[in-house]
Design goal:
This protein is α/β, with parallel strands linked by helices. Helices cover about 40% and strands about 15% of the residues. It contains 13 helices and 13 strands. The strands form three sheets. Strands 1-9-8-5-4-2-3 form a seven-stranded mixed beta sheet, sandwiched between helices. A four-stranded antiparallel beta sheet has the order 10-11-13-12.
Length: about 375
């Protein structure tokens, strides 16, 4: 089976973790965590970084710092991971879904403008599948409208927009270090900000509201969302190798583009770049031009030893939300790519021969289903 993804852990990664073990730097209060946070601020051009248990927690903590109230609205793309929606709903605010561009699969300013109202308090901007959202334009819009901007850069490690790093936009940025990310700690995440008060509050929220004066007297029922020292040690090593990881992904992504064009496979391929960023191919997605065969294609590929994944399912169609939210604006692009999109194996576990086999198998399956 050619796996859709397999994390690459180098010799240096393993040595970094071993050193942390030998130094007993394993807890969430270890120097490894502090060093990882310091490195994150440098790599993402932020003043403060708070490392925590995973990317979903990072989103949750980010929104819990905002003091949103019932009736407040938060705009977010419908084409993204469910944790974005969960973080908004747990605040009591109302999620308002916008569409995305049908070619870049990312949210644009025009998508945000279509759904903004007098009740809008915040925008969650997500960079998806290797390209960026309209970050500069959306940030300016939020500044002009006095809206809070949260940036989810979990799929955009190392991505640049006009020499500004993804992860440095908005009031708060969040990261995930799940196993399939450019930088991984297995599980793990981070909250980034330039606001000291937000960083201080976030640190209290992930650490059971401990304080230095009366350690076991707590003012709030917060949780333990800490990252361990061993995870941080892995993250430090991974951050140092991010450029090499991105270079490999771009080579593989371009090879897929060449093969799909050479063999005339009937799919919509990802953009190599948009006007904001060059594709880092966090994943390599395709949208089938033949409608309503995506699930069958996935099954047939698996029967041929090729693991894939379907695209995100639209948030506005998720069972827990569909009965409670009235969505008045059409979200056609999201629904089309979600129903017909899948991504192919990418990463160190895939070689050029594998890629050719995958493309030819995909072509044969599609043509047999015509």
């Amino acid at each position: 089976m050619i796996r859709v993804f397999s994390p690459k852990l180098t010799y240096k990664d393993k040595i970094s973790v071993l050193r942390a073990l030998l130094k007993n730097e394993i807890s969430g209060s270890s120097n490894e965590v502090k060093n990882f946070e310091s490195l994150l601020t440098k790599n993402f051009d932020r003043k403060y970084a708070v490392a925590l248990a995973n990317g979903s927690v990072a989103l949750d903590v980010a929104f819990q710092t905002l003091d949103l109230k019932k009736g407040d609205e938060v705009i977010l793309p419908s084409f993204t991971i469910i944790s974005c929606l969960s973080a908004v709903t747990r605040t009591g605010a109302t999620p308002i879904f916008c569409d995305v561009d049908k070619f870049s699969w990312n949210m644009r300013l025009e998508d945000v403008e279509k759904v903004v109202t007098k009740k809008t308090r915040a925008v969650l901007m997500v960079h998806t599948y290797g390209l960026s959202a309209d970050a500069e334009e959306i940030q300016k819009f939020c500044n002009d409208k006095n809206l809070i901007l949260i940036e989810d850069a979990s799929e955009a490690h190392g991505q640049m927009i006009n020499n500004k790093k993804c992860g440095s936009f908005g009031d708060i940025s969040t990261l995930s270090f799940y196993a399939n990310k450019h930088v991984t700690t297995g599980e793990g995440g981070a909250l980034l900000t330039n606001n000291y008060e937000i960083s201080k509050q976030a640190r209290q929220m992930i650490n059971l509201d401990f304080n230095n004066q009366e350690r076991f007297k707590h003012n709030n029922f917060y949780w333990n969302y800490r990252l361990s020292g061993l995870q941080a040690a892995l993250g430090i090593s991974q951050l140092k190798g991010i450029d090499k990881t991105i270079k490999m992904k771009i080579i593989q992504g371009n090879r897929y583009l060449d093969l799909l064009k050479k063999y005339n496979v009937n799919v919509q391929v990802p953009l190599k770049e948009n006007k904001y960023s060059k594709n880092h191919f966090w994943v390599f997605g395709v949208v089938l031009n033949n409608k309503n065969i995506r699930d069958l294609v996935i099954t047939k590929l698996e029967e041929n030893g090729i693991e894939t994944r379907p695209f995100f399912w639209p948030l506005h169609l998720q069972p827990p939300i569909i009965k409670n939210i009235k969505q008045t604006k059409e979200i056609k692009n999201t629904e089309t790519i979600a129903k017909n999109g899948l991504y192919l194996p990418l990463g160190s576990q895939v070689n050029s021969s594998n890629q050719k086999k995958i493309v030819l198998t995909l072509k044969r399956i599609i043509e047999n289903e015509l």
